Amino acid sequence: MAVQAENTGAIDAVWVGDSILSKPRLECIPLLGAIAAHTSRVKLGVACMATIAQRNPVLLALQWASLDVLSSGRTWLAACMGYPASQHPMAAKELAVMGVQSKERPERLEEMIQALRVLWSDEHASFHGKYYSFDDVNLLPKPAQQPCPIYIAGTPRPTQIGERGVERSLRRIARYADGWMTNQIDLAMFQDYLGRLRGLLVEEGRDPNEFKTVLYYGTSVNRDREQAFREAKAFLDAYYQKDFTRQGVEIWTACGPVEHCVDCVRGFINAGVDHVTIRPIGQDLNKQFRIYLEEVLPGLNLVAGNAA
């Protein structure tokens, strides 16, 4: 699929997922390394690195820098905190096995990003935080990209963490990240959060025009909208091991004919999304991927330019 995506000339990035135990799959860094060996143009992203708070910063810095060098500077790291232990039993197991308490994840994420940045740039890198600490480290090789981009992925919800929690989450993104990746979000919330982020970026002394946004979104294409929904729900239920509501499916996935899916994606592009990461969803993933390449993507290009 990655080779097909590159060969279209219209897709800018290929993304993989990340977990250690919560889902059985190839670990993201060697997987991206394999993809790097078979491609030469597309960016190589992880959406999102949910286990970043469980990793050692020096080792991760070397692994990611190596990937960036091997791919000639094509990496794209989107970091997130992953599920809290209370929301998913396998997430709880993963955190326990890795020796990380769920409540530590926000601070660990912040410290990790700071530690990676200094390791990737300084010849005498030192960092002293609550969870990570090292002195006078000259990590080699440094990434090919300087700076090497780090986005923060997340969609904070007041129903889950309260308004103060949302403010802290948005402040974290504005303070530490090169961009924001979001999913499971409606247009109104996206526009609200983007406006608030731009204000926070100014407060942090940063240029909002240099800050980029990514939407992680799905398409389940079928002339029968109900069948498209059923296939999307079956896929998401199995993948995330939970029972998605209709709203939960449709806030994350455009379900229906090509024209409907194009309109859904276009709405976010018009609202200010800089990059759209599409996950084809359905009973036949190869078929959905082909429909995306041959019908959805051209439909977007006719109106909105390259957005995938």
Tell me about this structure.
This protein is α/β, with parallel strands linked by helices and 308 residues long. It has one domain: Luciferase-like domain (TIM Barrel), CATH 3.20.20.30. Helices cover 48% and strands 17% of the residues. It contains 11 helices and 10 strands. The strands form 2 sheets. Strands 1, 2, 3, 6, 7, 8, 9 and 10 form an 8-stranded parallel sheet that branches. A two-stranded antiparallel sheet has the order 4-5. Strand 2, helix 3 and strand 3 form a beta-alpha-beta unit. The two termini are 14 Å apart.
Give the helices and strands, then pairings:
Elements: H1 2-8, E1 13-16, H2 28-38, E2 43-49, H3 57-70, E3 75-79, H4 89-97, H5 105-121, E4 125-128, E5 133-137, E6 150-153, H6 158-176, E7 179-182, H7 187-203, E8 212-221, H8 225-240, H9 246-250, E9 253-256, H10 258-271, E10 275-280, H11 285-304
Parallel strand pairs: 1-2, 2-3, 3-6, 6-7, 7-8, 8-9, 8-10
Antiparallel strand pairs: 4-5
Summarize the model shown.
With 308 residues, the protein is an alpha/beta fold.
Keywords:
alpha/beta; TIM Barrel; eight-stranded parallel sheet; two-stranded antiparallel sheet; 11 helices; 10 strands; 48% helix; disordered C terminus
